[in-house]
Amino acid sequence: MPIVLNTRFEHNIIDKYSCLKKLLRITAYCIRWKKYNRKSYHFTAEVETDELNDAKLLLIKLVQKQYFCEEIKCLITKQNINNKSKLKLLCPFIDKDGVLRVGGRLNNMPYIQADKRNPILLPSQSKLTILIITDEHYRQLHIGPQALLASIREQYWPLNGRNLTRAVVNKCIICFKTKPFTFQPVMGDLPKERMQPGRTFATTGMDFAGPVKIKVSNRRNAQSGKAYICVFVCFATKAVHVELVSDLSTDAFIAALRRFWSRRGYCTTLWSDNGKNFVGANRKLKELRDLFSSKEHQAKVQRCVSEVGINWKFIPV
Q1: Count of CB atoms within 10 A of residue 54's CB?
Q2: Cα distance between residue 168 and residue 158, in whole Å
Q3: Domains of the chain with CATH codes
Q4: How far apart are CA 100 and CA 120, in angstroms?
Q5: pLDDT digit of tens for each residue in the chain (317 aa)?
Q6: pTM for this structure?
C-alpha cells in the first residue's frame, strides 16, 4: 500500500525545523505510524538507515511536486518542457522511485554511482535545499563555498547552487568567528616627493641593512668578516640599488655613496634615517646607531654631498 501524507502538513514540518537530521527522524516516525497500527506497534527502537532514506526521498518528492509541478506533468504525459523553464537544459527525467533527476550521457557507466550520474534536482526556493546544504557544510567541517558545492553535487543538483552555498557559508557563525575581518587603517597621504615625476633616483631614500658575513679573500680557508648593505630606493619609481659597505666608518659609507652616484647619477634630494630610531635596537645595531647619530659623520657626509649639489634631508623624529 503506497504511503500518502498530507502535502500541506509536510511543508509545515519542513518550515518548522532548522536541523535536517531532526526533520528526517520525525518524518521517519510519521511513516512508521502510517505503516503500522498505533495500538499494536510500540516505537521503542531507533530509526534505521533505510527509514531515514525513505523519509528524505519522501520530502524531496513533495518539494519537487510543489516547485516543479508543470515539469513533472510534462514528463509524465511525455510532452516537451516549456522553453522558459529552468530545467529545460538539464534534460530531467523521473526515475523508478518517482524522483526528478538530471539527465545526461553517462547512463552506460556502471562504475559511477547513480546519484553522481544523475543527481537529484532541488529547487532554490525550498527550505529543504538550505537544510541539505547546511547539513553537508557541517558534515564537511565548514568547508568553503566552492568545495561545498562540489560535495553537494555528488548527490544533488540545487538550482542556483553557487549563491545558495555562499549564503550558507556567510550565515555560518562558526565560519564567521574563525575568519574575522581585520581592521584596515586609512593610510595617510603620500609625500609630495613621491608624487613628482622625474628621473630615476632623482629623489632617493637610503638605509642600512645587516650585518652580513662575507669572505675576506678568495682562498679556500679564508676568514669571514662582517659587512653591511646600503640600500638606495627611488621615491618615484621604487627602483632599488644595493651597495656593499665594508664597515660602519664614514669613509666606507661615502665610498658606497660615490659608487652609487657613478652608477645611477647624482640625485637632487637624499633622504636618510637620523639614527635615533636605532635606540631600541639590539647590540648588533649599536655601532650603526652610533654612526648615524655622530655629529662628525653627519657633517662629513653633508659636506660631501654639498659639493655635488645634493640636498640631504633627515627623517624627523
Answers
A1: 18
A2: 13
A3: 13-37+45-178 (1.10.340.70), 195-213+224-298 (3.30.420.10)
A4: 6
A5: 444 445 444 557 788 888 888 888 888 888 887 777 555 555 557 778 888 888 899 999 999 998 988 888 888 988 888 888 888 888 888 888 889 999 888 877 778 887 888 899 999 999 999 999 999 999 999 999 999 999 999 999 999 999 999 999 999 999 888 877 777 888 888 777 777 787 888 888 888 887 888 877 777 777 888 888 888 988 888 889 998 888 877 778 778 888 888 888 877 777 777 653 333 333 444 555 566 666 776 677 666 666 655 666 666 54
A6: 0.56
